[in-house]
Every structure is written in structure tokens, then in C-alpha cells.
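// run 5 | inverse folding | seed 20
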């Protein structure tokens, strides 16, 4: 009897082992990693120019442009740990508006640009390594950039419908604020992809609709503006598959 039970258990584990193992090998889609490599090249070139320029106004502009590029990579939620970490650190170095721990004089800005350039190089090397070691499973099911946009829209829809269903302005505000942030993240990523203007435009309109929701004085207006925002999220879902790097 015990032997029979063991045979049944081994058969059961054998049946589900491939499925379990597949989920433990999840990685990034090669298209996403290739886009990260391209973005890292753009960042290194821009930050090289920033360091060589040695002009405060030019440095500030290039740092803010680089901040958004690092942010776009950070928002994709990479499985490639070293690339994800470099994107986060690079974004922090470039964010001279909210990072109060460092000075804003020319020399400090140059140091920021140099540190961010180092992170861009690390991000590129990490993405290249992860691309080489991507498993067959990850090639088939890893998140593409279009998947990220679609997933963002799905989160927005849940936030907006939950906020509306609550019939409570406090809960509504929390949900809509989060949805507005995801619309912003979607717009940031969409602007860096080809054939993605429709998605970027829908994200901008979604941000405006969320602002209108937060300014609504009664639930009739809330519902009207929530529907506008939901329509924007639906448009993102509909057209996300067209976006390419």
C-alpha cells in the first residue's frame, strides 16, 4: 500500500514539475532587454555630452531628460536585477529637483552626470548579460513593452472602478491618485516607443480626466469623469500591441 502511494505521489509531482520549474525560470522578454540596451546607449551619449558641455543650463536639461529615460526603464519592472538597480540609481542621480542631499552648483551637477553615466553603463552591461542568458521559457512569456502598457491600463481600470464603487471621497481620492500616477508612467514609456502616440495621447487624456475626478463636487460629476478616464484606459489596452521600440 505504501509503495502504491509513493508511486502515485511521484507521478503527481512528475506531472506538475515542468509547470513549477517554468515559473521559477521567468525572465525578461528579449525585446524588452534590447530596448533597455538602446536606452542605455542614448543615456551614455547624452551624459557624456552633459559632462563635456560644462554649462549649468545644459546640464540641468540633460539630467532631466536622462531622469525620464532611467524612469522609463525602472517602470518596466525588469527581472534582470542588476539592470533594474542601475536604472533606479541612475534615476536618483539625475533627479536634482527632489534630491536635496547634494548641491546644485556646476561641479555637483557634473558629478551627478558622471554618476548617472556610470549607472547607464552598468545598466547596458547587465541587460546584455541577461539577454545572453535568457531562457527559452522567458522568450515565450516574458513581459514585452506592450504587455507593460496593457498591464498598466488594467491596474488603472481596477483603481477607478474600486474608487467609484466605494462611494467615499477619501477612498476615491486614493484610488484616483494612484490611477493618475499609472497614467503618467504609461505616458513616459509610450513617448519612448515607436508607433505609440495613440497610447501616449490616451495616457495624457487619462491624467486630465483623473484631475477632473478629483475636482468633482458630487458623485454625478465623479461618475462622468471616471467614465472618461476608463475610456482612456480602454484605448491604451486596445492600442498597446502597436507599440514597438
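// decoded
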Amino acid at each position: 500500500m505504501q509503495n502504491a502511494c509513493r508511486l502515485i505521489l511521484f507521478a503527481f509531482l512528475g506531472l506538475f514539475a515542468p509547470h513549477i520549474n517554468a515559473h521559477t525560470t521567468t525572465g525578461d522578454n528579449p525585446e524588452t532587454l534590447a530596448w533597455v540596451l538602446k536606452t542605455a546607449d542614448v543615456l551614455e551619449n547624452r551624459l557624456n555630452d552633459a559632462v563635456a558641455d560644462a554649462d549649468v543650463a545644459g546640464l540641468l536639461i540633460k539630467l532631466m531628460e536622462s531622469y525620464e529615460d532611467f524612469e522609463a526603464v525602472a517602470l518596466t519592472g525588469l527581472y534582470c536585477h542588476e539592470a533594474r538597480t542601475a536604472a533606479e540609481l541612475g534615476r536618483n542621480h539625475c533627479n536634482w529637483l527632489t534630491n536635496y542631499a547634494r548641491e546644485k552648483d556646476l561641479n555637483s551637477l557634473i558629478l551627478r552626470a558622471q554618476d548617472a553615466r556610470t549607472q547607464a553603463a552598468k545598466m547596458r552591461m547587465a541587460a546584455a548579460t541577461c539577454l545572453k542568458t535568457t531562457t527559452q521559457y522567458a522568450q515565450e512569456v516574458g513581459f514585452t513593452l506592450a504587455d507593460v502598457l496593457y498591464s498598466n491600463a488594467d491596474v488603472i481600470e481596477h483603481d477607478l472602478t474600486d474608487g467609484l464603487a466605494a462611494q467615499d471621497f477619501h477612498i476615491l481620492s486614493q484610488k484616483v491618485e494612484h490611477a493618475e500616477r499609472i497614467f503618467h508612467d504609461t505616458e513616459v514609456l509610450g513617448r519612448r516607443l515607436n508607433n505609440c502616440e495613440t497610447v501616449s495621447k490616451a495616457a495624457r487624456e487619462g491624467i486630465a480626466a483623473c484631475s477632473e475626478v478629483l475636482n468633482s463636487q458630487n458623485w454625478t460629476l465623479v461618475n462622468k469623469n471616471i467614465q472618461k478616464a476608463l475610456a482612456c484606459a480602454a484605448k491604451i489596452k486596445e492600442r498597446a500591441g502597436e507599440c514597438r521600440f
